[in-house]
Write a structure and sequence with these properties.
Elements (H helix, E strand, L loop, with lengths): L1 E5 L7 H5 L20 H7 L4 E6 L2 E11 L13 H15 L5 E9 L8 H15 L4 E6 L10 H7 L3 H8 L3 E14 L1 H8 L6 E3 L8 E4 L4 E13 L2
Parallel strand pairs: 4-5
Antiparallel strand pairs: 1-2, 2-3, 3-4, 5-9, 6-9, 7-8, 8-9
Protein name: GNAT family N-acetyltransferase
EC number: 2.3.1.-
Enzyme class: transferase
């Protein structure tokens, strides 16, 4: 039977939860906002929203979320910057001392050995419970379309309705809100990209391991840019 812990009561589970693995390539941790999503920061500020799911005493999944003030006068819509934008909002609200109203789920990760058992659905249900207990009115998710071919447009891909992770959210009652066309951005020199991916970039678009979009590179500028789309969904509370 799956049970839930969080870093407020079990800070010792942070490292075991991270050792379950990560979605996508190493380069996804090199974005400008990635440090804002570090488990240490979430543990310091919102430990009740970093969940660890246990089978007995063994971690099998984790889920992390952050609270933000949304909607607000200057935030009438969910951000086009998706995952990156939500992290910036959370940082702004924390600095300004603004009360949050919405929970943003940044990640739900299930160990490979535990997939296919409905554990992700349990994690999302518990995040909804946590949002209610905290007095928040919404749970939104910048969902990463994990099955998207890197060279296919997000609009064409969504039109096929084939993404398993998006469909999982829809089966749980989540409602489509909008596309976040530049949800996660990673920039680096060509040497950095080779270090992160093992791929030497040339001019133009290159597909790299773990990417759902290509890297656009310029050898003249010694620069590679990865821009990944996500899809905003809202889970009714």
């Amino acid at each position: 039977m799956i049970r839930f812990e969080d870093l407020a009561t079990r800070p010792d589970l942070r490292i075991p939860a991270l050792q379950l693995g990560f979605v996508g390539g190493e380069f996804l941790g090199q974005g400008l906002t990635a440090g804002l999503a570090s488990s240490k920061r979430i543990a310091a500020h919102w430990p009740e929203f970093f969940l660890v799911l246990l089978d007995g005493e063994v971690p099998v999944a984790r889920a992390a979320a952050i609270p933000v003030a949304f909607p607000a006068a200057e935030r009438p819509e969910l951000p086009d910057h998706g995952w990156d934008g939500a992290l910036v909002w959370a940082a702004e609200d924390h600095l300004d001392g603004r009360e949050p109203t919405t929970l943003v789920a940044l990640e739900v990760y299930v160990a490979e050995s535990a997939r296919g058992q409905g554990i992700a659905a349990q994690a999302l249900a518990e995040l909804k419970n946590r949002a209610r207990r905290a007095g928040l009115s919404r749970l939104v998710v910048p969902v990463r379309p994990t099955g998207k071919p890197p060279l296919e447009s997000i609009v064409d891909y969504l039109g096929r309705g084939a993404d398993p992770w998006l469909r999982s959210h829809e089966r749980l009652g989540a409602e489509f809100r909008k596309i976040a066309p530049f949800a996660m951005t990673v920039t680096g020199t060509l040497a950095q990209w080779e270090q992160w991916t093992g791929v030497r970039l040339g001019d133009g678009h290159t597909v790299v391991p773990g990417g759902i979009a290509p890297v656009l590179a310029s050898t003249e500028q010694d620069l590679g840019v990865y821009v990944e789309p996500n899809v905003w969904y809202e889970h009714p509370l």
